[in-house]
Amino acid sequence: MENVTSLVRPNIASLKPYSSARSEFTGENKILLDANENPFELWEMEKINRYPDPLQTNVKQIIAQIKGIKPEQLFIGNGSDEAVDLIIRCFCEPASDRIAIFEPTYGMYSVCATINNIGVEKYLLKDDFCIDADSFLNRVTKDVKVVFICNPNNPTGNSQKFGVIEQILSEINGLVVVDEAYIDFCSDKSVVSLVNRYPNLIVLQTFSKAWGLAGARIGLAIANRQIISILNRVKFPYNIGKPSLQILKNSLSNKALMEKFIAQITGERQNLYEQLKQFSFITMVYPSEANFLLVKTTNAQKIYTYLLDKNIVVRNRSHEPLCSNCLRITVGTPAENQILIETLKKLNL
Fold first, then answer.
1. pTM here?
2. Which of 271, 300, 280 is nearest to 345 (CA)?
3. Are 204 and 220 within 8 A, CB to CB?
4. Which parts of the sequence belong to the Aminotransferase class I/classII large domain (predicted)?
């Protein structure tokens, strides 16, 4: 066989993978303000020698009580990305069905769809980054099986109105996935309470952000028991390692600590919001209900490169629709945020 790449499925050969800023640099001692993690280290890994419970029964009971749902309405995945992929694989027929997204938004929806040879219908958010539900519902095609709504939205930081989400849930002939990765920073905006009312609703949440467990890779899907049963049928048997489950149980037993960090992060977000507005090369700091800020600048690439040279990693989102010359900056520790501001003060632009 001279060229093994000829065996690759065409949609995989042409796939543009999800890009992480961590792949764009090497070295240690970086200030990492690019991936929307919790900057505070909370737990230590524990050694383990046996396979974990494939359905995570015990920890599901704890989570279900916190979320106000039944354990059978809960799927635990290797990050919420696993749930995104499983939803598309389970409910979309390759080469015929499609998903719908509202741009700009989280990139993995399109990546997972493309990997599974599923088309992507893209609908632009309004200038205020809100969904135009009437326009969407008038234009969406019958081939759309799954609609993804990131709420609060990444990279814009804003949330959508309950009424808009309910309108789409009521009128769309398919599943609606509301990705609440950042919901702990604005918990009153969660739509988990709608799961029992709308059988086509799937809510995604994660422990990677507010809970500070990005390295443990634990995400949730909350839906009716029929959907959860299908996801469990397709997932890998031991998709969550026992060390990660132990770390999760430790975290769940200390919810007060998580709430303390949320308060600190949201306070730092406001401080960072005010300080970033002082710079002449920053023309807009968008309001945020997440743990990051979207910042419009006069030259995003130059600022991004300058900060990277100073060991500060942010995300350049300029290639996203409606995000020309925009950087996304994760809220770091007080010390990290201050270093960012002091570094920007030395930028001549």
1. 0.89
2. 280
3. yes
4. 42-344
